[in-house]
Automatic annotation (TrEMBL):
Keywords: Membrane, Transmembrane, Transmembrane helix. This is Uncharacterized protein. The chain crosses the membrane at residues 6-24, 101-119, 125-145, 267-285, 305-324, 394-416, 509-529, 657-679. The keyword Membrane applies.
Length: 692
């Protein structure tokens, strides 16, 4: 079967399931109807329906059948665990959402694998594509889960607006939450019903603590806690009206800021992920084009430098993709440890042999290296222990070292194959421009002649040129002249020398070891990158602290410790420091706050802590933070400016990182190979001029 038919067959196999999924999705959208406008809130209850029954049956059957396969079943369990934390799904909805993400991930991965296979047309490229799909699998799952997070946040904003209307009618927080939940979409209705059960429980404090453990984001936690306080102490009239309604307005405003920031970050960075991965796909057609029009460049691409450049390009592209994804992620998805049962590092570390090896590489306690790595894990909020991080570094270094050694072995085998199979063009011929059929046929005939003689002299060392002349004379003496026979003998001798020289050398093993050692620092580098990116998000979280404090400071029985507990529940970046402060608070409030400023030395956060210090003795909470209400407009503008600066900084970083693989591809696949061809042509030209 020709290449054209293979391409057509592959496209059919890929497009048919994609078209079927799109048709089913369109039918589902038609069955569920269009969304009502925002003003008709009384009619939105009908939107929480189950959707197209045929579409749901398709997902349910797919889930049951897919769970029976080992690898696909593990994929389903991972996605299911991520979604189960996000919302109180029922079993049918959880299966449907899991299969939606699974189908999307599989279609994208299969499409990428087919593109690499068709463009590369080699087993090594297919293997590289399979490894790349495994790497992208977890990233794609994160992308689709983040979309679900944003959708839940939008539904919660609509829920709050409906809750405002219901509270104005009933003046009861629990009834307002229940009625608003009945008008919300399916997932938000389940959350609203859980909030109502917390407010009406016999032990609200215990139920609230249980809900804090499963709430998918900080806003749901904070709003449920505020609603519980309203139920316990009653609503309060402030200078701006109802305390409860004022809190809802601030939550809505902050959620709008958050959604806008996420939308702008997604707009700025999502296209850069495609640009970062594009060089992997473009490298294959670019290499084919160069070999077609500049045949001598094939020696560069299949040589040591060419193979090293190719692997380095892939590594840079994947690294750029990972870094851009981390820039585009939201704070909660980046810093909250991912659920998913027992980690593979923990299971592997439990083996005695592995534990003995890893413990030898873990820095000793009370050393600077141990202290620095421990602090790095805490500041990046990584779920890894120091032993698990060391195990990950060792495995990554060992894998890269072995792959590098195998790459050198593969290069030697590829060079031997190229010496045997590559068309042999006349020495000194201009290898620029398209080669016509006659020239290529003559070059392939010359290669077949050389290969036949090389097979007889393979492995022989020393001066075999005279023996080659005799063998060439006996084989083609009637066809070739004496000068051509001598040229053929010299050419074959050089090919034999090149083939005999293709073996794994000591310096190549040293390079493989060096590559493995360098790769072992990659996990640490990623943690440092996360910590640096986290610094950009600190001001945003402090602004959210101000919003929460402006609500809580209006309650009469608020104290410093209770306020710190609320900040700890709402925090993401400052959570570890706040947790340690609460643990030390009973031993001395002033000392605990001073240590908190030392552990989180961010200027805006320190100013908030200094106000809490004043509240310990001199002022009340409301007096210490009374200017938050007076300067609300200023803080709103400051928050907008902070958000713009944050997005611009991340977009600038993203552009630099995203275009790095493209620039490297231009150098590794165009500039350097052209210089190689030019020098080789110059060398042959000088040699020919010297013979004249």
């Amino acid at each position: 079967m020709s290449l054209k038919w293979w391409i057509i067959l592959a496209l059919i196999l890929y497009l048919v399931p994609l078209v079927l999924v799109l048709i089913l999705k369109r039918r589902s959208q038609k069955a569920s109807g269009s969304k009502e406008p925002r003003g008709s809130w009384m009619n939105r209850k009908a939107q929480a329906g189950p959707g197209n029954p045929a579409f749901n049956r398709f997902y349910q059957r797919s889930y049951v059948r897919s769970a029976k396969f080992p690898l696909l079943g593990g994929q389903l369990r991972r996605i299911r665990q991520r979604l189960a934390i996000m919302g109180p799904y029922d079993e049918m909805t959880l299966r449907k959402e899991t299969m939606k993400i699974t189908y999307a991930v599989l279609l994208i991965s299969i499409g990428l694998l087919l593109a690499l296979t068709l463009l590369g047309r080699s087993f090594s490229v297919t293997l590289l594509g399979a490894i790349g799909c495994l790497v992208l699998n977890g990233m794609l799952i994160d992308v689709f889960v983040h979309r679900a997070e944003n959708r839940l946040l939008q539904h919660f904003r609509d829920f709050l607006e409906d809750n405002r209307h219901q509270f104005q009618a009933s003046r009861m927080a629990d009834e307002a939450i229940y009625e608003a939940a009945q008008l919300a979409g399916h997932n938000m209705r389940l959350h609203g019903e859980q909030m109502h059960s917390v407010l009406t429980a016999k032990d609200p404090e215990r139920s609230l603590s249980a809900y804090y453990e499963v709430a998918p984001n900080r806003y749901l936690k904070a709003f449920t806690g505020v609603a519980c306080m309203i139920m316990e102490y009653g609503d309060k009239a402030t200078a701006k009206g109802s305390l409860y309604l004022n809190a809802i307005g601030k939550f809505v405003q902050d959620i709008n800021f958050d959604l806008l920031r996420r939308s702008r970050l997604s707009y700025q960075l999502n296209s850069l992920t495609l640009i970062a991965l594009a060089p992997i796909l473009l490298s294959f057609p670019l290499e084919r084009w160069a070999e077609h029009y500049f045949p001598l460049m094939g020696e560069f691409y299949e040589g040591r430098i060419g193979m090293a450049s190719k692997l380095l390009l892939y590594a840079i592209a994947v690294a750029a993709y990972v870094l851009i994804r981390k820039l585009a992620e939201t704070e909660e998805s980046r810093y909250v440890p991912k659920p998913g049962g027992i980690r593979w590092e923990k299971k592997l570390y439990e083996y005695r042999i592995v534990r003995c090896v890893v413990d030898r590489f873990v820095p000793q306690k009370h050393t600077k290296a141990h202290s620095d790595l421990s602090r790095l894990l805490k500041e990046s909020n990584s779920p890894l222990l120091l032993e698990w991080l060391t195990l990950r570094r060792l495995l990554l270094g060992l894998s890269v070292g072995l792959l590098s050694a195998l790459m050198f072995v593969s290069v030697h085998g590829s060079m031997i194959q190229r010496v045997r199979e590559a068309p042999t063009y006349p020495k000194g011929g201009l290898m620029i421009g398209r080669v016509d059929g006659a020239e290529r046929a003559e070059a392939e005939r010359r290669t077949a002649f050389d290969r036949k003689i090389m097979d007889e002299f393979r492995g022989m060392r020393g001066d075999v040129e005279e023996a080659l002349r005799r063998r060439v004379r006996d084989t083609a003496g009637a066809v070739l002249g004496e000068a051509e026979q001598n040229e053929a003998a010299v050419r074959i001798a050089r090919k034999l020398d090149r083939m005999n020289d293709e073996y794994l050398k000591a310096w190549e093993l040293l390079l493989a070891v060096a590559a493995g050692a360098a790769a072992s620092f990659v996990p640490v580098g990623i943690l440092r990158f996360q910590r640096r990116v986290r610094g950009m998000d600190m001001q945003s979280e402090v602004d959210q602290f101000r919003m929460l404090i402006s609500i809580l400071s209006q309650f009469d029985r608020m104290s410093v410790q209770i306020l710190l507990e609320w900040l700890e529940r709402f925090a993401v970046i400052f959570k570890p420091a706040l947790q340690r402060c609460l643990l030390d608070f009973d031993g001395g409030a002033a000392a605990a706050l001073a240590e908190l400023k030392h552990e989180a030395p961010f200027p805006a956060f320190i100013r908030l802590i200094e106000r809490l210090e004043n509240s310990l003795e001199h002022l009340s909470i409301q007096e210490a933070f009374d200017d938050l209400e007076m300067e609300q407009e200023y803080y709103r503008e400051q928050k907008k400016e902070t958000m713009d600066r944050l997005i611009e900084n991340k977009a600038s970083w993203g552009r630099d990182i995203g275009f790095a693989p493209v620039m490297f591809m231009l150098g590794a696949y165009i500039i350097v190979p052209f210089l190689y061809v030019s020098f080789m042509q110059m060398k042959d030209l000088i040699a020919r001029l010297g013979q004249i």
